Amino acid sequence: MTKTYEEINKKIKDGVAVILTAEEMVELVENEGVEYAAEEVDVVTTGTFGCMCSSGVFFNIPQPDPPIKMETVVIDGINAYHGNAAADFYLGVTQTSSENENFGGGHVLESLLRRKSVQIEVTGAGTDCYPRKSLNVRLKLKNFNQAIMINPRNAYQRYVCAVNNSGEILYTYMGKLLPNLQNGAYGGVGTMSPLNNDPTYQTIGLGTSIFLGGALGTIIGPGTQHNPRSQMGNIMVTGNLKEMSPEFIAGAAISGYGSSCFIGLGIPIPIINEGLARTCGTPDSEIFTSVLDYSTRERERPLLREVSYEELKSRVIEIEGKQIPVSSTSSYAKSRQITKILKKWSKQGVISFRPPVLPLPRETEFKNLSQEDYEGNE
Amino acid sequence: MKEMSSKTDKFHRTIEYFPEKCVQCGWCISICKFSALQMDEHDYFHFHVENCNGCKLCLDACPRQALN
Which among A175, A250, A315 is the nearest to B27, CB-wise? Predict the structure, then answer.
């Protein structure tokens, strides 16, 4: 059984398309089988809501008179990157305030989405074409010419479960890990995780329409550290911050690590063949990830065991005979909400389904720095 | 948001929950040894103040500063 994108778009237009959330698809496949689901279902919607550190926004501020070429930019106490044209800067979500460790770039984005004004302090080079040497203004989101979110690495295909087998508390990007395997934290939302539903990227790539922060976004291509061979694929995405919602873009401060940002992201997957019906219908009991000991200082963390998302969702896993409480670093409630919103958007025709201009690569090489690199190659 | 509490535990230590900051992520859940922090069957967060022992292990586990 195969379906074309045109057939799916026509069924949506005619109001007869069958669109299910990922959780509904798992239930359907369990009850009716893959063949039936492949025939009946046109689109499956996915979603995730978790801290995605590799995220940020390009801003353009209206030029004052006389105009300015930015040399330093600080926005609500957070340093922004300004190595672009005169009035462009990039604010990354992990850039943390030097005065308040619980405040960073993600919080500034959330403030703007909550319609608050932010303080912008700029120093300028003072050139013949851009004479102004300083600017200090308060701006709201509506005052910026552009606020374009471009996230270099979002929505990992799967993520690990972190535990701590040492004798001391660890503060990590996976949260607070109590000593002696007293707790664990895992990433991803199993059946709902976007890339897991199309693990060979048949329908995902450059130009794919997605849910990003409450608005319609687009996949630009593979994200940094895209590593499909280890099921660690990810995507680079873009969207208009001005159309987003603070419900799905929320600043985060991770104790002992720094600031970040919760990002809501979902991908609607057209079921163009039986293989996609199978992967979209895969239950949590068949999706696995690794439990790693984060107490080592080495790059390669010891693998303690493989665990299914079904076991993780039970909130207790067993390691070395010990029952360990675990919790997700992604919100299942919000992820589910995203799958439902995408279902509504798909039904309403907000999303037009089309093949990716360029699918995500499946064989990208992923390297770590080796001893050879340290010694340097001529 | 299903439930919110701002109560004092039996040792008169106060833990405040700010529901408007909570994003239902669950980072705090596995930290609590007394079942004071729980997710329900719909994955919504609940603070059961009656179970809270006031150990405060959860306070710096929340990335949204929703527990204070």
Answer: A175
